[in-house]
Amino acid sequence: MTKCPQTITRIAVVFAALLPATWSVAQSNVPSQTQLIDKHIRQGWVDYELKPSPEAPDGLWCRRVYLDIIGRIPTPEELDEFLQDKSSDKDQRLVNKLLHDDRYTEEYARNWATIWTNVLIGQTGGNERNSLTSRPGMSKYLRDSFARNKPYNDMVFELVTATGSTKPGTENFNGATNFLAMKVNDDQATLATSSTSRIFMGLQVQCTQCHNHPFNQWKQQKFWEFNSFFRQTRALRRYVPGTRDVSHAELVDEDFAGEMGDPSKAIVFYELRNGVTRTAGPVFMDGTEVDVSGYVSDVNRREALGKMMIESEFMDKMIVNRMWAHFMGYAFTKPVDDLGPHNVASHPVLLDELGAEFRKASFDMKQLIQWIALSEPYRLSSQTTGSNASDNPQMGEPPKFTHFYLRQMSAEQLYQSLLSTAKSSGQGSYEQQEEKRNRWLQQFVTAFGTDEGDESTSFNGSIPQALMMFNGDLVKNATSIESGTFLGDLSRQNLKPIEKVNRLFLAGMGRRASRDELTIANKLLAARKGDQAEMLQDLWWAILNSNEFILNH
Q: How many CB atoms lie within 10 A of CB 447?
């Protein structure tokens, strides 16, 4: 039913009055890009006649921010510092601290390197026998890039055009080569074609490799034109001396003769479904043609591709969409990496404008993170109300972002969170910590994750998962009551039992214990015959194994 302009105006006034009162005060303190986000999301609430949930309590929001920005929950001390801060701009100060304080640089870089390693090479990439991919090499490149806050366009260009060795410590090491090392040799570099277009441009072209797709703007010709950019590239195997075991790979650019064997006109052939053979050369998605010569001295096709990619607005929108999904639980499109015209975004104008703002900000990833983390929809409670219960993207509807969508921690977030509760994150050298972490994650991802590079991890309550959480060494360390541990120190503090219990719940869940939970704690204390340390240990073990702990809420 169409509403008259007066009715629309009245609805807008009413909904403006229903928004959290504190937000208008803080609005002047946030970046203009955050205000842009809030304006468009609010307009969606008005359009759909929805009312947002109230703001999340400070403890839950603080927990959320730590998880999303540095990949773990806050320590009790960090949470206390935030909760005791009474300044009006404490949200902005916390986000800026996690992004810019040197104390968090290593954790920030490790978190985003982990996320992007999974995006670029998958959760098990590099773990295959005789793999050409070096997972440590990929991680090192990304970790260094995020620690230096390398502009995103520079990262994309380097990943698409890299040459050199995949393995740290070898001659000509270049960690960026690991993105393409396993994607260029087989099947005429079709995996390099589909992965590059999907991950960085949000264009799903894999279905057009063999035939035209009725719902995809890209046709078979476009796929093979894009594919032509990768045909000068090879990954050369380097073996362990005296064996046939692959040590690493060397990604090189070499002359390409094309299907006709003529490097001066290096075109490729592909076959239509009716058996007709067609030809294709390097042409970008916007129709820009590149010299068809296969001689690298004439034209380096990947470099030409990289330059055109970083000038495309598709790259801007794709990274905004991916980062929005990371913080908000859902992207503007589903799936996140499909920006084709057949897949309309939930907030198309906002997606376009944020992409343009990101380009104006010189592709500064930390600025993009700040814009989203300080936005109103990110600050909302995960509790739905009668006025927004219909906003449920799991039912297939586009997200309206009227409340924070619950999601599970990734395996990596869980590992880092358990490690921080055990106060053992700094034990050993960085390499030793990484080796221990990767060894644990290999087991965990096998039980919890997939092999398809999914950014989220599925917890389905399987027996291996339950045993890892019930009896694993990491949980045992986190629940230790020895001196110097979280529980050990807490049990020895001069606090009332109720205060200690509340500190447990704040540390694990970002909130104080409920009345029923306090009653359970009293019963545990009685069962332990007044031994507070054992009561806290029982309770903390239960918290760590609860659904609420493994959720980002």
A: 18
Tell me what percent of the residues of the chain surpass a pLDDT of 70: 85
Burial of 34 (0-12, 13-18, 19+ CB in 10 A): buried
- DSSP code, position 55: B
Secondary structure (DSSP) of 365-384: HHHHHHHHHTSHHHHB-S--
Residue 85 has, within 13 A of its CA and on its CB side, a CA count of 17
Per-residue model confidence as pLDDT tens digits over 230-239 = 999 999 999 9
pLDDT confidence of residue 415: 87
DSSP 230: G
Sequence-ordered alpha helix ranges (H) in 172-219: 190-201
Distances, alpha carbon 8 to alpha carbons 12, 13, 82, 315, in Å: 6, 9, 40, 35
Tens of pLDDT, residues 265-276:
999 998 887 788
Contact indicator for 368, 323 with CB cutoff of 8 Å: yes
Name the residue among 396, 312, 313 with its Cα closest to residue 351. 313
Decide: 383 and 403 in contact? Cβ < 8 Å.
yes
Structure pTM? 0.90
Cβ atoms of 94 and 82 closer than 8 Å: yes
d(CA 138, CA 121): 8
Describe the strand order of the beta sheet including 164-165 as a list of residue ranges. Answer: 164-165, 246-253, 233-239
pLDDT category, 12, cuts 50, 70, 90? very low
Cα angle 487, 492, 498 (rounded to 5 degrees) comes to 75
- 277 forms beta bridges with 271
What Å distances lie between residue 423 and 67, 158, 314, 420, 427, CA to CA? 17, 37, 43, 5, 9
CB 79 within 8 A of CB 111: no
Residue 442 has a pLDDT of: 64
Confidence label for 170 from pLDDT (cuts 50, 70 and 90) = very high
Average pLDDT over all residues of the chain: 87
**Peptide linkage before 335 cis (omega within 30 of 0):** yes
Q: Which helix (H) or strand (E) holds 414?
A: helix 411-421
CA angle 136, 358, 282 (to 5 degrees): 70
Alpha-carbon distance of 320 to 326, in angstroms, equals 10
User: What is the per-residue pLDDT across 346-397, written as a single tens digit (0 to 9) for each?
Assistant: 999 999 999 999 999 999 999 999 999 999 999 999 999 999 999 999 998 9
